[in-house]
Amino acid sequence: PAHSIHQARVATRRLRSDLKTVGSVLDPVWLDHTRGELEWLGGVLGSVRDADVLAGHVGDDGEGVPSDAGGRAELLARLDDQRRRAIADLGEALTGDRYLDLLDRLHAGASAPSLAAAVTGDRRADQRAQGVLAELVGRQWGVLRRRESKAGRHPSDRELHRIRIGAKQLRYAAEMAAPVMGKKARRTAKAAEALQTVLGEHHDAVAAEQWLSAIAPTTTPAASYVAGRLAAEQHERQRRLRRQWRSVWDDLDTKNVRRWLH
Predict the structure, then answer these.
(1) 3-class DSSP state for residue 127?
(2) SS (H, E, C) 9-31
(3) Is residue 29 a contact partner of residue 119, using CB atoms and an 8 Å limit?
(4) Which residues contact 194 (CB under 8 A, 6 or more apart)?
């Protein structure tokens, strides 16, 4: 089911992000290989999820006109073919040795973590958990803040995508720290999630416009017309989200992070 694939993708990306957050205490060889394999798995799951998201944009939203029905049906059929191919690739991946090796690696890592040589001598044993967690979350905040600063007043789609990824990593790091850090970490996670959501919708709109623009010349006139109209709607959606994201960023920056990470 689509929801299960989405949850599996989220879990894969969350684990990859958490490993990055605590990466300074893990063996770098184990860390790089494991995160690389999680990226591969997330990509396979993502191909299915991308088709599902696009189908949601193409499907009749109640505002289309009756004459659009044939064009929409053709576009949805293209997406169904795309999803079937992605499902086949996913099935092959989940029954292959590469996936089983990843599961073995994760199980071994959970049972006996592969620590970096610098921490095997209890380098941080005398530090309080709150201080260590604040440092780890602070690193993710620093990455996100630098990306936002570098992007300037008129960030490109690619820069907004990178800011979204940074917001997601900050959210996951703050959620990981919340059992120890309490309300301030939960507040940061919630604000980061809001930024991630707005920019995630923007990224979806960019991807939808690109797919619709690329598919239009290869379809019938009816489907091409619908694709063009939907692409224009997705472009306007991007403009609307671009006007929103800065205020969400300000809420994260001024109200939720400076109090404990600066």
Answers:
(1) coil
(2) HHHHHHHHHHHHHCHHHECHHHH
(3) no
(4) 248, 251, 252
Give the whole-angstrom CA distance, residue 170 versus residue 144: 8
Residue 213 DSSP SS3: helix
Nearest to 242 by CA among 159, 140, 144: 159
Two structure tokens written together for 119 = 């921490």
In whole angstroms, what is the distance from residue 145 CA to residue 139 CA?
10
Q: Which of 46-55, 82-91, 117-126, 150-159 has the lowest mean pLDDT?
A: 117-126
Judge contact between 60 and 68, C-beta under 8 A.
yes
Tokens for 259? 């109090």
Question: What value does the mean pLDDT of the chain take?
Answer: 91
Amino acid symbol at 97: D
* Helix (H) or strand (E) segment spanning residue 55: helix 28-58
Which string of DSSP letters, residue by residue, matches 74-88? HHHHHHHHHHHHHHH
Place of tokens 């995630």: 200
Which residues, 6+ apart, have CB-to-CB distance to 154 below 8 Å?
none
- pLDDT tens, 233-249? 999 999 999 999 999 99
pTM above 0.70, yes or no: yes
Is residue 113 classed as helix, strand or coil in its secondary structure?
Answer: coil
User: Using CA atoms, how far apart are residues 110 and 33, in angstroms rounded to an integer?
Assistant: 15
Supply 249's token pair. Answer: 């960023």
Buried b (16+ CB within 10 A) or exposed e, 115-149: ebeeeeeeeeeeeeeeebbbebbbbbbebbbebbe
- Under 8 Å between Cβ of 21 and 171: no
